[in-house]
Design goal:
It is a single chain. The chain is built from 16 helices and 24 strands. It is of the alpha+beta class. It has a seven-stranded antiparallel sheet with strand order 18-17-16-15-19-20-21, with helices on one face. Strands 1, 3, 4, 5, 7 and 8 form a six-stranded mixed sheet that branches. Strands 6-2-10-9 form a four-stranded antiparallel sheet. α13 runs antiparallel to α14. The chain is flat, with a radius of gyration of 30 Å.
Length: 662
């Protein structure tokens, strides 16, 4: 059967990825060394290709390759037009074992980026080789390019990590109706979008660390004579270590199909230089404007010097960027259904301050959105900018607020303005919503004033992707603020044109592109079952150590699902429902004269041992787990709710029933 060229290329790619995944080169080297040693005992006879193939067959290498190589049936009768109309937005998960075919259009240009290993990761110089089956820290490489996200399979951390991956990136055109046309060399030269590479380290407990965030300018491949270009990129650290090398990645770039005419290296260098000069000029003009604007703000009132008016913020690479550039209109497609669900998703991303060595004043670090999503945790600023971006995507008038909470601790949260003038605060760490009720300072003393329900104390400024406003009211106390942004006596606004010149998408080549969210990486039912089995084992072992037997009540365990589902629904919507049915079911399941006890708890991770240790710190849970009495029956239920990226809400409920003996 003859295959069209694009299908043949696709088939080669599947086989190539599979061979890399099973480390075929390492196995061939081992067989070759063994065969050469064996022939050394029988004279100096030269090793033929036929001898080597027989050796591979004897070791079962060929059988292993064919046994594990699976192809998905692909209907090759589709027209090229059908293939062209496929969306370019996708997320490729390299951890899955089933290889899915990729739609490769002969009418489009592709950049094939190969990672050929790493070196000089000196932090792991003394790390021993992991034993087979041993759990160890891993590196995972994440890539983003023009609405396409990819992730490598995790590899053990080492001084020379074995990162061997291939990523097929589609280089599509931007103009209306141009997405199906093949990009030529001149068009690709004008595409200044970099390949954003984020390296994440995951330790044995599942904790993630951002190692490096690198922007690769891939356009050097446009001058390669054969359309192939090998490069070594030096990855730098993040935060306070942004000037310290973290390691080196060896890459190979290849265009498919190859260019008929390549560009001169001087042309590419000139284009890059022009883009840098244009960006530098825009940033210089904005800085001049920002200084003048700040001076005018200070002249309004001397006390403004101490207000939290944040115009610039450093990202993970130590680059100062306007805060408005951290917010984008982000639509989640089918992954999130409502603004409240978006708030719930953001609250499931763990909170962590940027690590620092030594004491002193903590260095503030905001993160690009891709680095935040890949690490799956961040500071309050990262949570607030992501939540604001999602709320803007849902059509709300949303802003990030910079101010303080109790004990004068700097904090960042989100606010939305309703069409009726109502103001709602959103806490990105918890997904809680607070309706703002301002206090009237001129009201008579006997008039009752509303008490604030939110934890926020002062407010210095608010901003989104196109607006920046500083609070110039006599008091910056939140409960006294009037949120009429059109009143210049209360809010000093920056020029929207000035903000747009450096913060609008594509305005400067230095702005990191905004990635789309990817589908959940967790299968909820499988994760729930696995974690529940582990919790049952840990509970039974704990009781065995105490000399107690464990008898499970599977029916009672099943009934607990309704409660866990109601708890998650309440976190999403703020509405409690379903408790009546759960309570009625429990009353029916617990006989007269018996006592029922239950303990629900919520986690952001799926580590069974960490979760069980945390549960035992609660005296209520310990009372259930260590329950003694007559006719004791135990139950445990786990529900994992999957959200975009790798975020998940984990609910665990322990319960017991026993006969009350007075």
């Amino acid at each position: 059967m003859s295959l069209p060229p694009e299908k043949a290329t696709e088939l080669k790619q599947i086989i190539h990825d599979h061979l890399i995944k099973m480390d075929i080169h390492g196995k061939i080297r081992d067989v070759l060394a063994e065969t050469v040693r064996g022939d050394g005992h029988h004279g100096q006879r030269s090793l033929s290709e036929e001898d080597f193939i027989h050796a591979l067959q004897r070791r079962g290498i060929v059988d292993d390759v064919m046994k594990d190589l699976h192809f998905t049936n692909v209907d090759v009768s589709h027209t090229e037009a059908d293939t062209v109309n496929k969306s370019a937005t996708r997320y490729v998960d390299k951890n899955i074992t089933q290889l899915k075919p990729t739609n490769i259009s002969p009418l489009r240009r592709y950049l094939y980026l190969q990672v050929l290993g790493g070196k000089a990761f000196l932090e792991h110089l003394q790390e021993p080789e992991p034993l087979p089956g041993q759990v160890c820290s891993t590196f995972t490489l994440h890539l983003y390019f023009r609405n396409q996200r990819f992730r490598s399979k995790p590899v053990p951390c080492a001084c020379e990590p074995d990162l061997q991956e291939g990523f097929l990136l589609e280089v599509h055109r931007d103009g209306p109706g141009d997405a199906s046309k093949m990009a030529d060399a001149t068009t690709m030269l004008s595409i200044c979008d970099p390949v954003h590479m984020v390296l994440i380290k995951t330790d044995t407990s599942g904790d993630t660390t951002l190692v490096s965030s690198y922007f690769l300018d891939w356009r050097t491949v446009l001058s390669a004579p054969n359309g192939k270009n090998g490069v070594s990129v030096e990855l730098l650290g993040v935060g306070s270590e942004c000037k310290v090398p973290a390691g080196v990645l060896n890459l190979k770039l290849e265009l498919y199909p190859p260019l008929t005419e390549t560009l001169s290296p001087d042309v590419i260098t000139t284009q890059q230089s022009l883009e840098r000069r244009k960006t530098a000029e825009k940033e210089r003009l904005f800085l001049v404007y920002a200084k003048q604007w700040w001076q005018e703000f200070l002249e309004i009132r001397p006390s403004h010097q101490s207000k939290l008016v944040k115009i610039f913020a450093q990202d993970e690479n130590g680059v100062n960027r306007p805060v408005c550039s951290y917010v984008r209109v982000l639509r989640a497609g089918r992954l999130l259904e409502s603004p409240r669900q978006a708030a719930r998703f953001v609250s499931l991303l763990a909170q962590e301050r940027a690590p620092m060595v030594g004491g002193g004043v903590r260095q503030e670090q905001w993160c690009s959105m891709l680095a935040f999503l890949c690490r799956n945790k961040g500071e309050c600023e990262d949570h607030a900018t992501l939540l604001c971006s999602l709320l803007l995507g849902f059509g709300l008038d949303a802003y990030v607020c910079v101010g303080t909470k109790a004990k004068n601790i700097p904090h960042t949260w989100v606010m939305t303005c309703g069409t009726d003038g109502s103001i709602t605060f959103w806490e990105s760490f918890t997904a809680h919503r607070y309706l703002h009720r301002p206090i009237d300072p001129d009201a008579p003393p006997m008039v009752p004033q509303p008490k604030p329900t939110h934890p926020y104390r002062t407010l210095g400024c608010v901003f989104n992707h196109k607006t920046f406003l500083a609070n110039c009211q006599p008091s910056d106390a939140v409960e006294l603020c009037v949120f009429d942004f059109t009143d210049g006596s209360r809010w000093k606004a920056m020029s929207e044109e000035a903000v747009r010149s450096v913060c609008a998408p594509g305005s400067t080549s230095s702005l990191p592109p905004t990635p789309p969210l990817c589908s959940p990486s967790v299968v909820p039912n499988e994760a729930s079952n696995q974690l529940e089995l582990e919790m049952r084992y840990l509970l039974a072992e704990h009781r065995k150590d105490l000399g107690l037997a464990t008898v499970w009540d599977d029916h009672l365990s099943y009934l607990l699902s309704a409660a866990l589902s109601a708890y998650e629904l309440e976190r999403c919507t703020g509405v409690s429902c379903g408790n009546e049915e759960f309570q009625d079911a429990v009353r029916r399941a617990v006989p007269d004269g018996h006592t029922f006890k239950g303990f629900p708890i919520h986690f952001l991770h799926r580590n069974a041992r960490r979760a069980f240790a945390t549960c035992l710190r609660s005296p209520f849970c310990e009372e259930i787990v260590c329950c003694r009495g007559d006719h004791v029956r135990l139950a445990v239920r786990v529900r994992v709710f999957a959200y975009p990226e790798s975020a998940c809400a984990v609910w665990i409920m322990f319960a017991c029933k026993y006969r009350s003996v007075l």
